[in-house]
Design a protein that fits this description.
The chain is α/β, with parallel strands linked by helices. The protein is about 35% helix and about 25% strand. The strands form four sheets. It has a seven-stranded mixed beta sheet, with helices on both faces. A five-stranded parallel beta sheet has the order 7-2-1-11-17, with helices on one face. It has a three-stranded antiparallel beta sheet with strand order 8-9-10, with no helix packed on it. The chain is globular.
Length: about 400
């Protein structure tokens, strides 16, 4: 594909997958515009830490020409994995040996904060590539393969290829599929610790350098090291999607939420309970949703999906951002690798995307089922021992 024959490409969503696709296209002289509903790149918190896998996330970064920059930002020590029992005693601790601590070790998955990864991708794009404050309302076909995007406020854009990288509640997906995300039965309440090593030394030591999980009887704690001394904590429960309403809680009443969480974890160890009581950031309700497995759609000229828009799954796949970036890289590669038409390129991409995303989503569903089960302590311990 050359610049004179390149289609008008509109990527909806400035997450890792959409930005990766835009970056690789630009490296090969193909223009793409990214539209995002956020007012700016710093409008909201981007979430926790990510581990970049060599066969997916790091492969995409290599194709984007950003692997060296990523390695300079990554935290190889973040690969540490710990399990604790409900008393807070560590029962498993996998720390990569020093000889394998390099961020580009073939079997290692170095960590990076999601916000830093997004900034790396954003900074690599040509100025003006991302149009902020563009909230997509709906997509309508004009002619075969050409669509009109309608944004809140009345703006419209016509595109020869619309890439739905717009996440769990994708508006683009509605053009292809009637599927809607379904509640997994598990809710996370997110909280966090700032300046953990100095202000929360006991919890910092318990967390270690990477991720700590304490899971048992349909409940648990997941604590993750982020950059700048922050520990992000997810307090998880198998419960209804609106547990706080059922309990008569006002989510804005942080003290009431804290007390309700403590009641949910009656009998757990004192140190683990401090992940609730010692919060520096308050409590944010995050019910976990997933698309039906497998999620497929009938090929439609001029529109496709990537990332969560295509295969939303629980975080227990460990592959969400990695898959999104691989999707973006594969779509870009298909578009620049000499397919006869844009439609042929998209068909080739979807033939890769759909089977691998179905397999990953099946694994994610099994993962969350095992992590929040009556015997989750035993299931998770057996799983991590097998992997490590």
């Amino acid at each position: 594909m050359n610049a004179s024959t390149a289609p008008r490409i509109a990527i909806i969503g400035a997450g890792p997958g959409g930005l990766t696709c835009a970056r690789i296209l630009q490296r090969h002289g193909v223009a793409a515009t990214v539209y995002d509903q956020d007012a700016s790149h710093s409008a909201r918190d981007q979430g926790g830490t990510l581990d970049m896998h060599p066969e997916s996330g790091r492969r995409a970064l290599r194709e984007a020409g950003l692997l060296d920059e990523f390695l300079a930002l990554a935290r190889p020590e973040g690969r540490q994995m710990r399990l604790a029992d409900r008393e807070g005693c560590v029962v498993f601790d996998a720390t990569p040996p020093e000889s394998d601590a390099g961020a580009d070790a073939e079997d290692g998955n170095p960590e990076i904060d999601r916000g830093r990864l997004r900034d790396l991708l954003l900074d690599s794009l040509e100025p003006g590539t991302v149009r902020w404050g563009r909230k997509l309302a709906h997509v309508e076909p004009l002619t075969t393969g050409v669509h009109r995007l309608y944004f809140a406020g009345g703006a419209t854009v016509d595109a020869d290829l619309v890439v739905g990288a717009d996440g769990a509640w994708s508006k683009v997906r509605r053009r292809l599929s009637e599927a809607r995300p379904v509640y997994t039965g598990v809710t996370f309440v997110e909280t966090g610790l700032d300046d953990a090593d100095s202000r929360h030394p006991v919890l910092a030591a318990l967390t270690g350098d990477g991720t700590l999980m304490a899971l048992d009887d349909n409940r648990g704690f997941i604590a993750q090291r982020n950059g700048h001394g922050h520990i992000r904590v997810y307090v998880g429960m198998r419960t209804d999607a609106h547990w706080h309403r059922t309990a008569g809680l006002d989510p804005a009443d942080q003290g009431a939420v804290r007390d309700a969480l403590l009641r949910e974890f009656t009998g757990w160890g004192a140190d683990l309970l401090r992940f609730i009581t010692d919060s520096d950031t308050g409590y944010t309700h995050r019910p976990l949703y997933a698309l039906p497995v497998p999620h497929t759609w009938r090929h439609t000229p001029g529109v496709t999906l990537l990332g969560d828009a295509a295969h939303l799954m629980s975080p227990f796949s460990g592959m969400g951002a990695n898959l999104a970036m691989l999707d973006g890289a594969d779509l870009a590669r298909a578009l620049i690798d000499g397919a006869a038409t844009t439609d042929d390129a998209v068909r080739a991409y979807e033939s890769l995307l759909l089977p691998r995303s179905a397999a990953a989503a099946e694994g994610a569903a099994e993962g969350i089922a095992g992590a929040f089960a009556p015997d989750s302590a035993a299931q998770v311990l057996a799983h991590v021992r097998q992997r490590h």
